[in-house]
Every structure is written in C-alpha cells, then in structure tokens.
Specification:
By secondary structure, this protein is mainly alpha-helical. 54% of the residues lie in helices and 0% in strands.
C-alpha cells in the first residue's frame, strides 16, 4: 500500500493546523511558524474561493488519515451508497480502518 513519505511538517503548515502526523515531544508551534505556508511565496496567503475551501478540507481529511486520492474516492463512493449522511458515513469508514485503529 502506498503512502506519503515526504516531510510531514510541511503538510501541517500547508493546512494551517497540527495534523498530528509526527509523534514528537514538542508542539508544532514551537518548531516552526505555522501561520506561513511552505514555499517561496508562502508569506502571502490569498483569499480562497468556495471550491478552494472545500478542497483544503478534503485534503486535510486525506492527510489526517493517510489515504491517497483513489482510496479516498472509493471510500466516498461507499459512503454515498450507504443510507444516512454521506459525510458522517465517510468519517465512520475512515475511522474504522485497521491502520487508524492500531
């Protein structure tokens, strides 16, 4: 199974919150400036459109659970197929993954 092997702190800085991807002792705000996103032009943060906000939230959920896009798409299709709220079903499916439970 594939997974992201790059810098974990960069993902947390991109999302603007601590994603708890590193099991370190120090908090993330003592390690770096979390207000700035990574990259050469990270100091300037423009206003996001409605689609941009939705995309950031989707990426945040993907990165918290360590799921790639194809797996996430399959989980979404399964959650949409089930009865009830699709968002709650999706989170329930993601939380019952074996690597998340262990």
């Amino acid at each position: 199974m594939a997974r992201y092997l790059g810098p974990k702190l960069k993902l947390s800085r991109r999302e603007g919150t601590d994603l708890f991807l590193k099991s370190g002792v120090r908090a993330i705000d003592t390690k770096c400036k979390i207000e700035t996103i990574p990259g050469q032009h990270g100091a300037r943060r423009g206003r996001l459109s409605d689609y941009g906000v939705q995309l950031r939230e989707k990426q945040k959920v993907r990165r918290i659970f360590g799921v790639l896009e194809k797996q996430f798409s399959n989980y979404y299709k399964e959650a949409a197929r089930q009865k009830g709220n699709t968002g709650e079903n999706l989170l329930q499916l993601l939380e019952t993954r074996l690597d998340n439970v262990v």
